[in-house]
Amino acid sequence: MSDIYIDPQYKSTLPLRETEKAIKEIKDYFEQTLAWNLNLQRVSAPLFVRKGSGINDDLNGIERKVTFQIKDDNEAEAEVVFSLAKWKRMVLADYGFSPGEGLYTDMNAIRPDEDNLDNIHSIYVDQWDWERVISPQQRNLDFLNDIVRKIYNAVCETEKHLCKLYPEIKSILPKDIQFIHTEELLEMYPDLDPRQREDKITKEYGAVFVIGIGGQLADGSIHDGRAPDYDDWTTPTINGRKGLNGDIFLWYPALNRAFEISSMGIRVDKEAMLKQLEIRNASERTKFDWHKRLIDGRLPLSIGGGIGQSRLCMFLLRKIHIGEVHSSIWPNDVLKKAEQAGIKLL
Length: 346
What we know:
globular; 9 helices
């Protein structure tokens, strides 16, 4: 059963057609600002890849992928991407990008195993996937945080632009984003679960980058799952803490919760990948071509991530359900609740 939140006082700020215009405005403006801030070039991206190539993102390793057979290729199997985390790094190498340069693309995915189609989760995922070549000296926390600030700046600039176009939408983002490690959150709120910790800290600061997601914490738990072969969540940083990745959260009053808009990080080098594959009992992946390229030094060091397109539009347009900014399939109970509340899903 889907668990959606309906505020009886909620009313969409913009009508349906104006919402569609605003979505286009947000996507165009943010995309250009992000590309300028991070020195990124737009490239074309696949919707599907060959099964068994090792290129697809495995998320937490248990989710089913949408697969199909290609008739004119001897029924070869293909699978719809979950994200382009590894594909982007391969393209950086194949297209000849240099340190300081990067790419971004539109990523569309289908995640049929999404088991809680609530206000912000859908089986359809759209995001800006981006990746940038870095030097060995930039594999550190200071550089990661600097990139986070540039992304957050693009979000803030887009909010300012939208508020000028639609005065009925008021700015709610703080000037600066705060940084905190998952170990610190555990120390601060030992009796709360990870989601509650995110809510607590994000409500306090308004915008937070939570560092170190995927690795084991002091109490033996993990804050949230991460695949072992793209983000680096084992490299030591400061004060015995580990991880060169994280999530960007914004406090969203419409839902009274932390609102994740981006997952990102410095990517694994050879040593980090082999270590993380071993931790996750996934060392067999080293037989894939993509992993062999990384081991052989034929992929550049990089930083990258995904930024939710519909998530960002939902937040900036102050919508209460992600179905108000993108079209998907919803369970009957979601459709019924939305209709009763007067919420128009696309």
